[in-house]
Design brief:
Layout (H helix, E strand, L loop, with lengths): L2 E4 L9 H12 L6 E4 L6 H6 L2 H5 L2 H11 L3 E4 L9 H6 L4 E2 L4 E5 L2 E6 L9 H5 L3 H9 L2 H17 L1 H18 L6 E4 L6 E3 L5 E4 L6 E7 L4 E7 L7 H4 L17 E4 H4 L12
Parallel strand pairs: 1-2, 2-3, 3-4, 6-7, 7-9
Antiparallel strand pairs: 1-10, 5-6, 8-9, 10-11, 11-12
Helix pairs in contact: 1-4
The structure holds manganese (II) ion.
Manganese (II) ion binds next to loops.
């Protein structure tokens, strides 16, 4: 059995490739595994504008429900995009819901989980968009009004992306340092860049978005591995330098471009206490 952590899949109907990538990952899990999703599984666009029934029929969400029904452990810590989907996650997918932040003990590793948007780096206008009223109102807007609004929000996100990521990462690093002695790993989302930094306090793992690749943390009784698997065959930079095709886990067979980090050595020997997150 193994424990998996992923975040920021941002499922939405106009990006079926994310659905395919994530479904392949979920279908590769075994029924004895556990999966923890650290927020923003569904994008705001899809979450606000679909009924529970429509969401339940969406392929990768259906595969999550099947994984759960087969005996898999599914835990969701909601993010800023899917905070209002908690009833759907709990009642329809059968997920256990976690508050933000949450602490887990997994194979002896103390893990602090947070989505990341509540740590102090987000802009005021984004905080206002996290209200239930905005979620409801966006869900009721007719398509011809909602689509341009969605495009403006995406454009605004893209335009300031680097600065926004750096601002959040600076806050994450400070927070990771403050977790010294309390957590071995700070596992976080929201920022879509995949990051692994040993740091001075808890080791900082930003799980990374699934917009253009797959990434997840896998912990079993012998090791913890952070895997980032770019889409397609062509990648540049450090992804190739750390290429590995030997790691196990979902998506492992075709992902010769993956980079992996073995955390166990850097975090000291994990104490072998098993504490299932459920
Ligand atoms: Mn987010």
């Amino acid at each position: 059995m193994a424990h998996y952590f992923a975040s920021d899949v941002h499922l939405r109907e106009d990006h079926p490739e994310r659905d395919q990538r994530f479904r392949r990952f979920v279908e590769g899990l075994s029924r004895t595994d556990s999966l923890v999703i650290v927020g923003d599984l569904c994008d705001f666009w899809m979450g606000a504008r679909k009924s529970d029934r429509q969401l339940a029929a969406y392929p990768s969400l259906r595969s999550l429900a099947e994984f759960r029904r087969a005996g898999g452990s599914l835990t969701i810590l909601p993010g800023n995009h899917d905070y209002w989907l908690q009833p759907f996650y709990g009642n329809v997918l059968g997920a256990t819901l976690l508050p933000d932040p949450a602490d887990l003990l997994v194979e002896g590793l103390r893990i602090r989980l947070a989505h990341g948007h509540l740590l102090g780096a987000r802009r005021m206008w984004k905080a206002a968009m996290e209200s239930r009223a905005f979620f409801r109102a966006f869900g009721l807007l007719p398509g011809p009004f909602a689509r341009p609004l969605d495009r403006v929000l995406c454009w605004k996100n893209e335009r300031g992306l680097l600065a926004d990521e750096e601002r959040h990462l600076a806050v994450y690093r400070t927070y990771a340092a403050s977790c010294r002695g309390v957590a071995d790993l700070l596992v976080i989302g929201h920022v879509h860049r995949a990051v692994d930094e040993p740091g001075a306090g808890a080791r900082l793992i930003v799980l990374g978005g699934w917009q253009h690749r797959s990434s997840y943390l896998r912990i079993d009784e012998s090791e913890a591995i952070f895997r980032v698997i770019p889409d397609g065959k062509t990648t540049a930079g450090r992804d190739d330098a750390n290429a590995s095709s030997t790691a196990s886990g979902p998506l492992a067979e075709s992902d010769t471009n993956a980079w992996t980090t073995h955390l166990a050595a850097a975090s000291g020997s994990p104490r072998m206490t098993l504490d299932d997150p459920r």
